[in-house]
Amino acid sequence: MNKLYIGNVSAEASEEDFETIFEQWKIPHSGPFLVKTGYAFVDCPDEKAAMKAIDVLSGKVELHGKLLEVEHSVPKRQRSCKMQIRNIPPHMQWEVLDGMLAQYGTVESCEQVNTDTETAVVNVRYGAKDQARLAMEKLNGSMMENYALKVSYIPDETAAAEGPSGGGRRGFNARGTPRSGSPGLGARPKMQSDIPLRMLVPTQFVGAIIGKEGATIRNITKQTHSKIDIHRKENAGAAEKPITIHSTPEGCSNACMTIMEIMQKEAIDTKFTEAIPLKILAHNNFVGRLIGKEGRNLKKIEQDTGTKITISALLDLTMYNPERTITISGTKEDCGTAQKEISKKLTESYESDMAAMNLQSNLIPGLNLNALGLFPSGAPGMGPSMSGVPPPGAHGGSAYGQGHPESETVHLFIPALAVGAIIGKQGQHIKQLSHFAGASIKIAPAEEKDSIHRVVIIIGTPEAQFKAQCRIFGKLKEENFFGPKEEVKLEAHIKVPSFAAGRVIGKGGKTVNELQNLTCAEVVVPRDQTPDENDQVIVKIIGHFFACQLAQRKIQEILAQVRRQQQPKPTSGAQPPQPRRK
C-alpha cells in the first residue's frame, strides 16, 4: 500500500517539480515520478512515508497554482471493502466513531494507523463492497466537530486474489505479493488480532484518563500503539466504567499500566485514600480454564507474582452481561505481571475455542455464530456478547444455502435440579430458546422419582442443535449448577442404525479412539445393546460443549458415508442402448 496517486496536477508540472516538493518536505520515495496529464504516480519505501506524503501534501501544497490531491494508488480490481479515513478529530471517542461507521454496514475491522499528525487515521474494512461504497459517498468531506473527513480506498488484497489474474488496466499492473508494510502482514499488528483487554476503573478517574480535550488518552494511544475505548455512557451512575484496549499483548499491557499510573497519581492529587486494585473483565467461558483444576492455575499466578487475585461470583452474571471481574491486588509492577499471565491464559482459551468454532463452521456450512454469546465483544468477527437478536435461519428456512439439512435428534442429560432454570417462569425460557435455535426442545418425564438427571430432547438441523445445546450449556454455568472451578460437561445420546455401529467403533476400536483423540470427548458405544423398534442403538458422548459438538458432527459424517455406500448403484442395463453411428 505504498504507491501514491497524485491528482489535480497542472499540465506544466514536471518530474523535477515533484522531486523538489518531496525533498523540501523530507518525504522519501523509492522510484521515479510517473507524470501523466493531470495526475502522477510515485512509490514510497514504506507505509510511514506514504502516510506522511498524504498528511503533509494533500490539499495543502500548491504546484503551479493547483492544490495537489494525494492518496493511495488503488487498482480498480482492489477497490472493494477497505478504505482509509483521515482527519478524524483527535479527541473523538472510539465508540462514537464505531457507531458512525456501523450506520453503513457491517464493520469487520477498524484499525488505527500511527501517524505524526494531530488528527487520527483509521483503516476500515466493511463486510460488503456496496457497504464500503455507501460509507465512502456519505463520509468523504463530511464535517465532524469542525474537521472535514477524508476518505479513500486502500488496496484490498483479498478482492485482488478473487479477481481475474491476468490483464489489468495500463499503469496498474499486478504488483505480485503485497509488500511487508501492508496492514496485517507483519509490519504492524492488527488492533483486533488479539482478544481485547477489558478493564474496570473508578468513575471519578475517567476524566483524568481522558485528559483535557482528550490529550492524555491520545498520548496513551500513540505511545502504546493501541485503540482505547472508554465506555462512559454505559451504566449511568455506576461507580466503575469499563475500558476496552485493542492491541498486541504488549500494547495492551503497556496501556493498562499507563492507565494505572494515571489513576494512582490522580488519587494522590485528590487525596483519595482507598487502594486502587487492577480490575480486569473476562468472559465467563474462559474463567474456568483460568482458574484451573482445584484452582491450581490461579494459585500459581498468585505465587509467581506476589499478588492476591479474586474473581466475582457467578451469581452476578446475566444473559446480557457474561463477564466476570478479576481483581488483582498488589504493587503496580506485580499487578502488571499478573495481568500479563492472566491475559495469556485467556488468549489461549479464546484461540482454542476459535479453532473449535472454525471447525464447527466448516462442518456445518453457513452456520451463523455471531449471536451465540460465546466470545467477548470486540473479538474479531464477533458481534455484541449474548445478543438477543436471533440470527438468520432461526425462524425456519435453511441457512445453509444448499438444500434442506436433515433434522437430527439428540438427548442431552442435565442435572434434575436444573429443569426449572431451563424451562423458566411459565415456560418462557424454553420457548425463547426453541424460537432462537429453530428447534423443538422438550424435557422428558423423569424415569424414576429420585433421578439425578433429566433428559432434554432436541430435534432440529445441525445448526439448530449447535445453537440450542450452546445455550443450555451456558445456562447451566450461569445458574451455578457447576462450580467455578469446573467446566460444564454433559452426556449426550444420539441414535445410529445398528448396522452402522461397527463403523463408529472401527476395527479394534480404531475409529472411536481416533474420535476421542480428535474431539476430546468420551465416545462410548455400549456393547450388547438390543436395537429399538427402528433397529437403532445409542452412542454416548460426554464432554464440554465444543467436544460434544465436534463428536456429534464427526459421527454424523460417518453415518452419511454409510448411507451413501448403501445407495443402490445403477446397473449396466439400466441405461437405454445408445444408437450406433452410421
Automatic annotation (TrEMBL):
Originating species: Eleginops maclovinus (Patagonian blennie)
GO MF annotations in UniProt: RNA binding
Protein name: RRM domain-containing protein
Keywords: mRNA transport, Repeat, RNA-binding, Translation regulation, Transport
RRM domain mapped to chain residues: 2-75, 81-156
Record-linked PROSITE patterns: KH_TYPE_1, RRM
Signal peptide location: none
Region annotation Disordered: where it falls in the sequence: 159-190, 562-582
InterPro entries named among the record's database cross-references: KH_dom, KH_dom_type_1, KH_dom_type_1_sf, Nucleotide-bd_a/b_plait_sf, RBD_domain_sf, RRM_dom
Compositionally biased residues, Polar residues: 563-575
Gene Ontology biological process terms from the UniProt entry: mRNA transport; regulation of translation
One Pfam family recorded for the sequence: RRM_1
UniProt xrefs under PANTHER family: KH DOMAIN CONTAINING RNA BINDING PROTEIN
Family statement drawn from the similarity comment of this UniProt entry: Belongs to the RRM IMP/VICKZ family.
SMART domains reported for this sequence: KH, RRM
